[in-house]
Specification:
Layout lengths: L3 H31 L2 E7 L5 E3 L4 E4 L3 E4 L11 E2 L2 E8 L2 E9 L9 E4 L2 H14 L6 H9 L7 H10 L5 H18 L16 H14 L7 H10 L3 H14 L3 H10 L3
Parallel strand pairs: 1-8
Antiparallel strand pairs: 1-6, 2-3, 2-5, 3-4, 6-7
């Protein structure tokens, strides 16, 4: 017979899980009921992320994703919310595009405001099972933008499950796993963390050496990159090696990232 304490603990866990499952179910229901068109999910963004709502997303002082005017004329960078436009055809999501910032009128057919956790879980589920492989990277990107989201456990599953299924989803999962692993070296769970600009000339030389390793043909530099990741004590140098290891596409990178993220 189950002890009363264990029963209550299980009941409490189920009670907490039920609203989250219901919310993700609501997203699926809205997709199915729309049938054809664009459903825009809106949810809180990570601190420090902004965008103009239509063409670019920025985090930190130096990193932007998207397009902007080369002459410096651009719309203001506005903090949140994340807006993920889901293109729906015959009741199924076919593509996704992530934005941050103010909504664009007449760019969607339906809107659903949800939590970052539920939206991200829904998007990661799409990335796991979607047959339109070119969209998987967009699902992953939308998912990691959410406030407080720690997506690396799901990304490990995606990376391991897609080694032989086309490169788009695999590359996106590896890239963000690398970002999470680099953040972990300084005790953070934020894949958008930026390292301080202050560094001495020795660090520049070490980072250049890491870059040279990454450019060796035939994965020759992967062993050296793994050694730097596992043994170097400089967080910036390790983060640099982690980045290039993720770019290598080598399946060993997944195991190295998991070691870091699980603290093995």
């Amino acid at each position: 017979m189950m002890a009363r304490g264990a029963f209550l603990a299980i009941a409490a866990a189920c009670a907490l899980a039920a609203p989250a499952e219901a919310q993700r179910g609501q997203i699926a229901e809205r997709v199915a009921s729309l049938r054809n068109g664009v459903l825009e999910l809106r949810f809180p963004s990570r601190e420090g992320i902004c965008g103009d709502g239509r063409s670019y997303i920025q985090w930190g002082e130096h990193t932007r994703f998207g397009s902007w005017s080369s002459d410096g004329r651009q719309r203001p960078c506005v903090a949140g919310p994340v807006r993920v436009a889901l293109s729906v055809s015959n009741g199924e999501v076919r593509r996704a595009k992530a934005y941050v910032g103010p909504p664009v009128p007449d760019s969607f057919d339906d809107v659903l405001e949800t939590s970052a956790a539920d939206a991200s879980q829904y998007l990661l589920d799409l990335a796991r099972r979607d047959s339109h492989r070119g969209a998987r990277g967009d699902y992953v990107f939308g998912a990691v933008l959410g406030e407080g989201v720690v997506a690396w456990p799901a990304l490990l599953d995606i990376a391991r499950g897609q080694r032989t299924e086309g490169r788009k989803g695999h590359e996106a999962a590896l890239f963000w796993l690398g970002r999470y692993a680099a953040a972990k070296t300084v005790g953070s769970d934020d894949p958008f963390i930026e390292f301080d600009d202050d560094k001495d000339p020795d660090e520049d030389l070490k980072e250049h050496a890491v870059f040279v390793m990454s450019q060796l043909r035939g994965q020759q530099g992967v062993d050296d990159l793994i050694k730097v990741v596992r043994t170097n004590r400089d967080p910036r140098v390790r983060a640099n090696a982690i980045f290039w290891l993720g770019q290598s596409g080598d399946k060993r990178a997944i195991d190295v990232f998991e070691e870091i993220l699980r603290g093995k």
